[in-house]
Amino acid sequence: MAQENPREKLWELIKDIRFAMITHRHEDGSLHACPMTTANREGMNEDKHLYFLLGKDSDLSRCLQHSSDINISYADPDKDSYVSISAKASVSDDLAIKEKFYGPMAKAWFPDGPNDPNLQILIARVDFAEYWDVKENKLVQLFKMAKSAVTGERPEGMGEHREIRL
Fold this sequence. Notes:
It comes from Comamonas sediminis. This is Pyridoxamine 5'-phosphate oxidase family protein. By secondary structure, the chain is of the alpha+beta class. The protein has helices at 6-14, 59-64, 95-101, 138-151, and strands at residues 19-25, 31-37, 49-55, 69-76, 81-92, 119-133, 160-165. Strands 1, 2, 3, 4, 5, 6 and 7 form a seven-stranded antiparallel β-sheet that branches. β1 (19-25) and β2 form a beta hairpin. The radius of gyration is 19 Å and the shape is globular. The two termini are 21 Å apart.
């Protein structure tokens, strides 16, 4: 059996999830989270980066000046797929990157296009990811949990849980 590429597996799990929650350390030390849309269209590049369009005037942008550690969470409850990513964030004003990831939906936030003075790119370098991916249908899951409740034994085969170091 061929060894699965961790970067490709991670992309397969998150590619169809429209929104991610990015958790960051606020200036007061508390943790804050905000919803963001992943800008990558073709997958993660060899450098293991995820990209997000970010406003320079946003709370997240200000907080990244103090701490670059972020967590990116994805959830697809319909598929019982959940991903948590630890990453280092940086921001870029590179016009070529902005042009690559700017799309029609971004116009609502950045009306002047890739040249919008408020637009920057959040680059998240993925270091570690953890995922939970359940393949059984809801009825099978419910049966296994009910059996576990009756027997007192932990349910088995409730899906795949893995950690990925990139």
